[in-house]
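RECORD TYPE: protein structure
NAME: 40S ribosomal protein S7
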Amino acid sequence: LFDIEVSPSSDIKADLRDVVLCGAQDLEVKNRTALIVHFPFRVWKTVQKIQGRLIRELEKKFNKKHVIFVAQRTILDKNFRRKGLKIRPRSRTLTSVHESILEDVVGPAEIFGKRTRISVDGTKLLKVMLDPK
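PREDICTED:
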C-alpha cells in the first residue's frame, strides 16, 4: 500500500492516506494462493470506495495471487453482560458478522440469492448467487 501511495501516477493516492491495515494472511486454495487483507471496521467505508482499483493494483504487484479485503469485526457471545454492556447490538452477533464477512469476500459484486443445500449425510452447502454485473 505504501508503494501505491508514494507513486506519483497513482489516482487513489489521496484516498489511501487514511487507510491502515490490521493484518494480512496467505491462504492456499487449489494450488493457488489468496491474500486476505484485514482492515479496521472504522476505515472500511473508505476501502470500499477504492476497492476495485486497489485490488487490481495489488494483484499486479503480487502476481498469481487473489486479493480479498475483509473488515475486522467483533463478535460478542451471549454472555456479553460480563463485559459491562447493556444490550448486544445485532451487528455483533455471530450470524450477522458471518453474513458481513461473506459480503466482504465477494468484493464489489452484490449477493442476490442464497441457497442452503443439505445432503443426505447432513453436510450443508451454501450456494451464493452473485449479481451478474
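COMMENT: The longest strand covers residues 32-40.
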